[in-house]
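Obj.: predict assembly geometry.
Materials: sequence records (below).
Method: joint structure prediction, all chains together.
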Amino acid sequence: MAGKPVLLITRRLTDVVQARAARDYQVILNEEDRVFSHDELIARCQDVDAVLPCHSEHFSADVIAALGDRLRIIANHSVGVDHVDLNAAKKAGIVVTNTPDVLSDATAEIAMLCMLGAARYGAKGDAMVRAGKWDFWSPAFMVGRQVTGKRFGVLGMGRVGQVAADRARGFGMTVHYHNRTRLPDHLEKGAVFHDTVEGLLAVSDVLSLHCPATAATTGIINEKTIALLPDRAILVNTARGNLVDEPALIAALRQGKLFAAGLDVFCTEPGGNPDLAALENVFLLPHIGSATEETRDAMGFRALDNLDALFSGGEPQDRVA
Ligand code: DGY
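Observations (raw structure tokens):
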């Protein structure tokens, strides 16, 4: 190819990542750092060789069909690829990559924050002190649930799930998990494998979701499955909002079936769910699981590594389609 490949970067990345991209590619930036509409995304992807999007850009089948012949790769700045129709990309001959591994620590850390924030009224307590409304204390005041010694259930024991399990072990929790395939001993590290989702739910004092969003997992946490959890369990979701039926979750939190929920992801993003936000027994974050300086640099570099591999005639290491 004559000259540098043309690369559209859809959102603002860290300075070092953008500098490296500008060194090796003819970069088009989204200076406003806002989500492109469906039509804008199609228009911006014309006449480029590559696009480096985030999970906020939706490459549905109709978007992909309208992309034209030039685009060779969608090099995602995310591990999740549920925002890309992989079958449509495959059919169109467009390579798709993601950024696994590099965000596992940061995301597992935020799962711990969500767990503790939910178990110990982190948001309610913070808001009370900030608002100058902390005017009372007693042994019966703001009593949460201790996680030490409890059972930490991992739904989806991939890279992030495994690190979250390690962190939970650090809190003296016993780890249970369900995964499509059982892990070998050196990865399982004594965790208890459940060959059904139902089996896992029945023993999860804290249930932490770490599975990808697919047709099979959409709404996997719903009225029926919540009923299987031990009474007063805690739900943690740092994966994708649509794994959870939010009205069913809200009902369970209101009834006290669930003690609390710690959520970094929602069905509607950005924005979240006002009915969830109205509850006291939730700890809510704005999808910042991978938002550390270290991880955002690493994700950007990993996406660029994938682009470099393709444009130098090789195979990107993180190809998913
Ligand atoms: C991911 O990498 O999938 C995170 O959710 C951030 O996009």
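Conclusions so far: The two ends are 23 Å apart (CA to CA).
To do: check interface contacts against the pulldown list.
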